[in-house]
Design brief:
The protein is an alpha/beta fold. The protein has two domains: 267 residues, Aldehyde Dehydrogenase, Chain A, domain 1, CATH 3.40.605.10; 178 residues, Aldehyde Dehydrogenase, Chain A, domain 2 (3-Layer(aba) Sandwich). It contains 16 helices and 20 strands. The longest helix is centred in the N-terminal third of the chain and has 20 residues. The chain binds nicotinamide-adenine-dinucleotide.
Amino acid sequence: MNLTGELSEVKNYINGKFVPITIGRNGQSSMDVISPIDGSVISTLPLSTYNDVDKAVQAAKNAFTNWSAMTLKDRVQIFFRYRTLLEKHMDELTKLVQLENGKTYGEAKAEVEKSMELCEFAVSMPQIVVNEVQEVSKGVECRIERKPLGVVASITPFNFPNMVPHWTMPNALVLGNTMVMKPSEVVPLSTVRMAELLKEAGLPDGVFNLVNGGKEVVEAICDHPDIKAVSFVGSTKVAKIVYKRATSTLKRCVALGGAKNHLLVFPDANPEMTASNVVASMSGCAGQRCMAASVMVGVDNIQHIIDRMVEDAKSLIPGENLGSVISAAAKERIEDYIAEAEKDGAKILLDGRNTTVEGKEGGFYVGATIIDYVTTDMSVAREEIFGPVISIIRAKDLDEAIEIENGSNYGNAAAVFTQSGGLAKQVMERASAGMIGVNIGVPVPREPFSFGGWNESKFGVGDITGRSSIEFWTQNKKTTTKWNPEAQTNWMS
Ligand code: NAD
């Protein structure tokens, strides 16, 4: 793709305009944006500072007065148009995700389609967010109305450049907030197009703003006194930092972190369906999904399923139906994990190390990797690898399998593969994870069901999407009225 206009040099988007950063400090003020497909430099990104965040917050604060005064129904009209624009530009947006993130065309398209679904939920808010009113005493009414918070912020990771920004932006804005978003510095291009399309859909200036950069921008967001709520999606290490820092300045915060998802496979599982689901879960988006299968707990004798998995995984061709990982550092980290497991005595059934793609030698590719006879003390059993790698741990029975799953610090997703309803029910009840799949390898709840994990996969109350997000992006105003003097009642009567 030949990048032109705002994409060839990313700028901040503040008050409806693309603006350069305020160079407020010495040292580096920009960085290269690299396509993981072939390692080429595709754009440059400004490294903003507190001053830039402050400008965006002021714009969002100014825009809040008029935006929040509009009716919910009027705000929603803009998102009907925006959703249509996503559909109209589907191919272009898909290729942009591919270019900056490295996933396959099909995976990138599915991401943009999911963004459309998220907008569909946002435009349904007038049917869902209905205020409450009751005559609580003769002539006295109590009402509860949902009100926006003000200026809110959203910080996003690299692995879903289009979808994760849509987890937060449509709902927060439709509910009357204005927003400052900080996309991942590694994949800033999709959000630039998002800003342009929002403007085309009629979003007033200042309602949505983008500030690009790294850690310094995140810290400024956490510290800024005029930001009321912070939503974060990324690794657990940073989720903890952000949650602590944002709440220490008394902001509302929900911070989604990393994952180590366990799939429990029983011998009675349908072999073909299970093998293809497990392989698709561990390798989709090159394993860079917080919902990816990372550990398979094989209960009793499931060798026939493992054999099928290896055959299925052999059909994954890097650069064709298996995308790249995000960076040279990610490739090295993933390969180090595989090497360590091998050194510790695990058996590598399929080895994706040292993969190159002809014609894209500068790209960052790891082939599908299956590691068997992993034990719970190994780092590949405990830590998030975030690559197309699955570790198989053998367990003797359900209790041992559950104990292994429960032993993880994380708790995003867990799944069970079996044809027994009783076994499935036990896993549904006893797995310590926020999202559970039965014969489903990537159990992402679709709208209007909400998305969010447990344990160290999420900090804060509530989930990030669906109905749960309505609570997060609003506050209740409780009003008690008495317009009937004849009622002669003290309201407490
Ligand atoms: P990351 O934590 O490195 O970065 C996320 C955001 O935090 C980026 O915008 C980045 O600029 C910023 N950041 C990075 N280091 C920081 C620091 N020290 N202080 C303040 N801000 C900092 O995550 P990533 O590598 O972009 O994304 C991959 C991670 O995100 C994986 O761990 C994955 O599991 C997780 N993830 C989780 C979910 C979920 O729903 N739980 C969804 C998607 C991704």
